[in-house]
Amino acid sequence: MGISRKAAGIQPSATLAISAKARQLKAQGVDVIGFGAGEPDFDTPEHIKAAAKRALDEGFTKYTPAAGIPELRQELARQYSQAHNREYSPNQVVVSCGGKHALYNIFQAICDPGDEVIFAAPYWVSYIEMVRLADAKPVVLPTTAEENFTLTPEAIREALTDRTKAIILNSPSNPTGTMYSRAQLEAIAELALERNVYVVADEIYDRLVYDGEPFVSIATLREGMERITLIVNAVSKTYSMTGWRVGWVLAPEEIARAIGNIQSHSTSNPTSFAQKAALAAITGPQDCVEEMRRAFEERRNVICRLLDEIPGVRYARPQGAFYVFPDLSSYYGRTLGGREIRDSLSLTEYLLDTVQVAVVPGEAFGEDRCIRLSFATSMENIQRGLERIRKALAEG
Ligand SMILES: Cc1ncc(COP(=O)(O)O)c(C=O)c1O
Predict the structure, then answer these.
(1) Pairing status of strand 198-202 against strand 229-234
(2) Nearest Cα to 107, choosing from 176, 187, 198?
(3) Is the beta carbon of 238 within 6 A of some atom in ligand 1?
(4) Which three-class secondary structure state does DSSP give residue 396?
(5) How confident is the model at residue 396 (pLDDT cuts 50, 70, 90)?
(6) Per residue in 302-324, pLDDT tens?
(7) Which residue CA neighbors atom 16 of ligand 1 most closely?
(8) Where are the domains of the chain?
């Protein structure tokens, strides 16, 4: 009787715990300003919703092929082939229930017990547990704000063993918003090819990049990278469709087939009409994406300016996504408003309890010196929230 050792070993998501507390306070009528959101605060564009409604009206409500509807797989293969200047077949695409599910499937498909998967800290919370759920071992390499929170090829080389199965790269990153440079990606691509390890490229924020920088996929950088790169993306962040649960993986055919098989015995297929909506999203007008991107860039500029006004705060300027990850450890060991600030969790609790600002403790992302602020919230909230944080930190 009882739950399995595997299930017992899984940590609940810390990001969800803090949002639950913030929601509870909000429900009690408290004016909480939330910087916890991991999703755009815009509505899904109308033409995408219309496509889902049309699919429902036309009775598109039954099982679909496990790996996704053929027209969506074809269109994704076509778009990647064009963007990467390579030939991808629809058989290399598997549509899943969101990017998270695509990643989960990947580790189930490529990892044997004891295999190692390398990734950087700060990391997106689910990598650790997903790798463990595949009976593999997370190998977490710390990075610093000075390194733009990116892995150096040297650090990866040192961590590689004969059990290394994959390296995860998340660029732009959640929680830091930072990106790998083309030169860094080239060096990592060469290393991965030389050592024959997969690169899991989590490109979920590829359309949310700032300062006119082009997004570069590691899959395009060296001949042969398409044989070892597993690209993950979704409509979630790009089209403000987090609740629709449609993501995908682009992988070598053998791996895509394995993922399709796994999926056929777990979820069967992603929701039928949500796939039609995803097709409308990727084939329809893209100005909605640019509008949201521009709004996030403006907010990024404002939140960074306001952070600059707070003494003792250091951060790497986000180049994409909608998060900033300031280091507030200069406040640790101090007593603020009668409370001792020891770490990211006590700081987070202090901010929520005293000035009703919800942030996520960096501890959840493997970096206790920092907190994560999401700027997927209104400009007014950013201004009011940062003012509250500034005041709370000035309490002697
Ligand atoms: C880095 C990263 N990868 C993957 C995902 C999963 O996205 P989805 O909502 O499509 O499952 C997220 C969502 O927060 C993310 O931040």
Answers:
(1) parallel
(2) 198
(3) no
(4) coil
(5) low
(6) 999 999 999 999 999 999 999 99
(7) 174
(8) 5-43+288-394, 46-283
